[in-house]
Specification:
Blueprint: H1 4-21, H2 29-39, E1 44-50, E2 56-59, E3 69-70, H3 75-82, E4 86-88, E5 93-100, E6 103-111, H4 117-123, H5 125-139, H6 144-149, H7 156-164, E7 169-171, E8 175-182, E9 190-197, E10 200-208, H8 212-231, H9 236-251, E11 257-265, E12 270-276, E13 282-285, E14 288-292, E15 311-314, E16 320-324, H10 326-329, H11 340-353, H12 358-372, E17 381-388
Antiparallel strand pairs: 1-2, 1-6, 2-3, 4-5, 5-6, 7-8, 8-17, 9-10, 10-11, 11-12, 12-15, 13-14, 13-16, 16-17
The structure holds manganese (II) ion.
């Protein structure tokens, strides 16, 4: 049972942390969060950030002997995987998900008196939400947060590429979009982007030929032209033509980028796709892959001679669309066998039967691809999962009032 005084203490701690945050150095956040948690009635707390490889939760600015926690094998990891509050250490430790919207940033460790754990867990969500917001906003002004998330040094191409990508996960009441690129520290030629404008979600996946810095530059230019066209409200066919022209003018006629450009009408579920020699997206319904989302693949971008067709399909509420680059299905196992579309479908079906959230489904898919290739990918591998919920009224959890007072 939540007691009024718990809510009051949390509210005061939130206000104080918010006021304090304006002139806060990024590296002062862990201590300020700990103070706020104490003021709210806990014994203290610690921020853990998810590592770039999405395998561990790393304490932020903790003493050197504080070990990262495994996402697979710890209670903190379960909190991260299921985005649910977990209670451990005989009721004296809570794990709260740190979410920026739906993007999983890490987890918040909160130490409490066991007899206060339940009330604190129920009342502390606003404080965890503010701490998550501050992780995002303060993280822009320091290398410390990013360094914490890297278990390996990052290459220059990857450094340049990651800077150009949007947050990996975004959701509204009608959809979830979530993506991941591997090998995270050495990616170069793959990229993706999305934007939600009114009732239309626009998204794209790119794969530039070759590797390293030259591929990153091509992917970066393709991204910039795509965004530029999108912001000028240019249609898909004209956008493909514009990307094609700029790539050809800048890199010559022998360099190319494959891509899928898509627009989803969030009200009706109608999805329009244009493919430029890119692997066709998969459509998954009720845990089963219905096959490829019909595309009429044109030439890669940058080679000229365009004759693009936009193909439309109708999604049903709950459908998932999986976009990927060839590096996913062509990841080779020990015997030289490809990861392949069948394994991809199999993994997705298993995730659906576990009713896993889309970001966790994607995290496991990526790990499966890496495991198949014993951790060293020959090519960039990008996976993007789009889930369309349909009518927002249809996705309200049971017991949620349809109209707020
Ligand atoms: Mn590729």
């Amino acid at each position: 049972m939540v007691r009024v005084q718990d809510d009051d203490r949390v509210a005061r701690a939130v206000t104080r942390l918010l006021v304090e945050s304006h002139l806060m150095r990024p590296e002062a956040l862990p201590e300020a969060a700990d103070r706020a948690l104490r003021a709210a009635g806990a014994r203290g707390g610690r921020i853990h950030l998810v590592s770039r490889d999405q395998r561990s939760l790393v304490p932020l600015l903790a003493p050197d002997d504080t070990e990262p926690l495994s996402i697979e094998g710890s209670l903190a990891g379960r909190c991260f995987r299921d985005t649910e509050v977990m209670t451990g250490a005989e009721g004296s430790r809570l794990w709260l998900p740190l979410l920026d919207g739906t993007e999983r940033l890490g987890v918040l460790q909160v130490d409490v008196d066991p007899d206060a754990a339940e009330a604190f867990a129920a009342a502390s969500a606003p404080l965890a939400a503010l701490i998550a917001e501050l992780v995002v906003s303060k993280g822009q002004y320091t290398d410390t947060f990013e360094r914490t998330r890297r278990a390996l040094p990052m290459g220059v191409a990857a450094e340049l590429l990651w800077r150009q990508l949007p947050p990996l996960t975004f959701a509204s009441d009608r959809f979830v979009v979530t993506a991941q690129l591997e090998p995270w520290h050495e990616v170069g030629g793959d990229a993706f982007d999305y934007s939600i404008d009114g009732e239309v979600l626009r998204l794209a996946v790119f794969d530039a030929m070759g590797h390293g810095l030259s591929a990153t530059l091509m992917a970066g230019v393709a991204l910039a032209v795509y965004r530029n066209c999108r912001r000028d409200q240019v249609g898909l066919v004209e956008t493909a033509a514009a990307v094609d022209r700029v790539l050809s003018a800048q890199f010559g006629d022998e360099c190319f980028v494959t891509a899928v450009l898509a627009e989803l009408d969030l009200t009706t579920g109608t999805i329009s796709t244009l493919s430029a020699a890119h692997p066709a997206p998969l459509l998954v319904r009720d845990g089963k892959a219905l096959g490829e989302l019909s595309t009429d693949p044109g030439l890669p971008l940058g080679l000229g001679g365009r004759d693009d067709t936009v193909v439309t399909a109708s999604l049903q509420p709950g459908d998932r669309v999986v976009m990927f680059s060839d590096g996913v299905v062509e990841a080779r196992g020990e015997d030289g066998d490809f990861f392949g579309v069948d394994r991809l479908v199999d993994q997705l079906s298993r995730a659906e039967s576990r009713r896993q959230n889309a970001p966790e489904t994607l995290r496991r898919l990526v790990l499966a691809v890496l495991e198949h290739q014993q951790g060293t990918l020959q090519d960039d591998a990008t996976l993007l999962v789009l889930e369309w919920a349909g009518d927002p009224a249809g996705v309200l959890p049971t017991g949620t009032p349809a109209e707020l007072p």
